[in-house]
Design goal:
Length: 225
């Protein structure tokens, strides 16, 4: 995908900075977790049904094959973590903090990450029915080859975020605050607010599809031909 470089040689929009999870060569096998656990250097298995992991700390962990009807990560902390092919019907993660986390494959149903703090996180090849990021802080975040029903970003603060080869039925952009938000790789069916797209980078075709909404936003009356 083409990018623009300023006269000062600064790439625009600035892409997410690479930050792959740093895992040790050997991980201890751990079966299950409980709320408030502190888990480090482990491969965590056996997460199914209802998983209560609120306020849990995961550091340098691989978590393969989650198969949960409900998973609670409220106020949890994840650093250097790989979530491999999770299947979670309802993920409750308000206030979660993630650093250098890779979510690869799998499917998430309803995913509430409101007021979360995500830095260096990548979703790759994930199907998500609903991803709620209301008032979240998002930095160096990438979505690659993802299929999303609703991507809801009301009041979120975004810096160096890119979507590549992704599709979404609806994108909630009300009161979004964006800097270096690259939307050129997103095929979106509907945007809830054109005002919230200020600071984003889009293709000419994407902007052309927004012309009626942009006209109404600036007060132009679209009369019949």
């Amino acid at each position: 995908m083409a990018r623009r470089t300023s006269r000062r040689g600064v790439e625009h929009p600035a892409p997410p900075r690479p930050s792959a999870p740093d895992l040790p060569d050997t991980l201890e096998r751990l079966e299950g977790v409980a709320r408030g656990d502190d888990v480090e250097d482990a491969e965590v298995t056996g997460l199914s049904g209802v998983v209560e992991a609120g306020r849990t700390i995961f550091t340098a962990c691989r978590v393969p094959g989650i198969d949960a009807d409900r998973m609670v990560l409220t106020d949890a902390r994840l650093a250097d973590v790989v979530l491999d092919s999770p299947r979670i019907t309802s993920l409750e993660g308000r206030g979660v903090r993630m650093r250098r986390v890779l979510v690869v494959g799998g499917r998430l149903g309803s995913c509430d990450l409101g007021e979360a703090d995500l830095e260096g996180v990548e979703f790759r090849g994930v199907r998500i029915d609903y991803l709620g990021l209301a008032r979240a802080a998002l930095e160096d975040l990438a979505f690659v080859d993802c299929r999303i029903g609703t991507l809801d970003l009301p009041g979120a603060t975004v810096s160096r975020v890119a979507l590549r080869d992704c599709r979404a039925d609806e994108v909630g952009t009300d009161h979004l605050r964006a800097n270096d938000l690259d939307l050129r790789g997103l095929d979106a069916g509907r945007w809830t607010s054109v005002a919230g797209l200020r600071g984003a980078t889009m293709t000419v075709d994407q902007v052309a599809g927004l012309l009626p909404d942009l006209a109404r936003h600036v007060g132009i009356d679209l009369g019949a031909d």
